[in-house]
Design brief:
The structure holds two protein chains of two kinds. Chain A is an all-beta fold. Helix content of chain A is 0%, strand content 49%. Chain A has no helices and ten strands. In chain A, a hairpin with a 5-residue loop joins strand 7 and strand 8. Chain B is mostly beta strands. Chain B is built from no helices and eleven strands. The relative contact order of chain B is 0.33. The chains are: A mainly beta, B mainly beta. The interface between A and B is medium-sized, with 24 and 27 residues.
Chain lengths: 109, 115
Amino acid sequence: DAKTTQPNSMESNEEEPVHLPCNHSTISGTDYIHWYRQLPSQGPEYVIHGLTSNVNNRMASLAIAEDRKSSTLILHRATLRDAAVYYCTQGGSNYKLTFGKGTLLTVNP
Amino acid sequence: KAGVTQTPRYLIKTRGQQVTLSCSPISGHRSVSWYQQTPGQGLQFLFEYFSETQRNKGNFPGRFSGRQFSNSRSEMNVSTLELGDSALYLCASSLWTASSTDTQYFGPGTRLTVL
């Protein structure tokens, strides 16, 4: 199974940038990198995804290493509402996304 | 557009019983995936369906089964419940596939407690 590795937890201050890292040790050339987050008492929600190039959307930016063995989710200005568990995952043509344990992000006011 | 809905939201069963959980995907979505989430194991993939066909299955015993109907609605069934089956069961839908370029949209989950 595809495997990703993330830190168990990270802490940030409100309105500061946050860089959440992920290692994709078993990623294949056609796997997309996805990030999801799960707010307390909710199902996961999509954040961003990409293949090779860095990606931006209204929620975050995704930086993908040249060898694609690592990615970084960037929240440009963390808010209290960004406190959640963040999951990186990767998926290709096998119709499944394998989630790791995720990173619990705490945002301090 | 309505999101992914799951019913029931909460369920309490006793060991040995069976349970059926339901998932209605976003209109137009044809892929439905199921996940089990527990504090110890995190989010684990159960299976994925597309056009009534199971395309992939996670590493779970045969007590866990599922199906998808022609309108893309899906059900999962757990027979002979064990205490360890207590978990949040999440359903997610996407247009075509649970991986690659598609985005998955998750429902709120069904919280199953086995006593």
